[in-house]
Amino acid sequence: MKILVIHGPNLNLLGTREPGIYGNTTLTNINAALQALAGELGIEVAFVQSNHEGGIVDAIQAAKTDCDGILINPAAYTHTSVAIRDAVSAVAIPVVEVHLSNVHAREEFRSKSYIAPVAVGQISGFGVDSYLLGLRAIFSHIKLRL
């Protein structure tokens, strides 16, 4: 089983970007934690980070040919991108949306996700654990379908 992990805009700044909201963990640390969990689960993970909407759309479309699922933190594009939503819908492979912060406890505009309605589920508010819970969730979802 192979899962593509997509990190959206500004997540490359984790560790220094608004640590009161996002914590001090870097993207490299998150990827390492996901890689370790993937090893425990006996699956493969691949990572993409893009600050560009089109780059994320391209990664989602490419995943259709060699991935069993996608774990995505679309970051700010969660609330704005119909293009990413349509790409998720078009590839028809399971997707779990994750967020470090609880988007529903922040500014009102962050409560609306264009991705959640076409995803298997959404996990938010648990910091790095949101990613780890998300990987476990997509793994379990795919295993149940096999």
TrEMBL record:
The biological process GO terms on file are:
amino acid biosynthetic process; aromatic amino acid family biosynthetic process; chorismate biosynthetic process; quinate catabolic process
Sites marked Transition state stabilizer: R17
Catalytic reactions of this protein: 3-dehydroquinate = 3-dehydroshikimate + H2O
**Pfam annotation, one family:** DHquinase_II
Q: Where does substrate bind?
A: N73, H79, D86, L100, S101, R110
Q: Name one GO molecular function term.
A: 3-dehydroquinate dehydratase activity
Annotated active site:
Y22, H99
What are the alphabetically sorted keywords of the record? Amino-acid biosynthesis, Aromatic amino acid biosynthesis, Lyase
Q: Does the keyword tRNA-binding apply?
A: no
Q: Which CDD domains match?
A: DHQase_II (cd00466)
Pathway given for this chain reads: Metabolic intermediate biosynthesis; chorismate biosynthesis; chorismate from D-erythrose 4-phosphate and phosphoenolpyruvate: step 3/7
Role, per record: Catalyzes a trans-dehydration via an enolate intermediate.
* Name this protein carries in UniProt: 3-dehydroquinate dehydratase
Species? Geoanaerobacter pelophilus
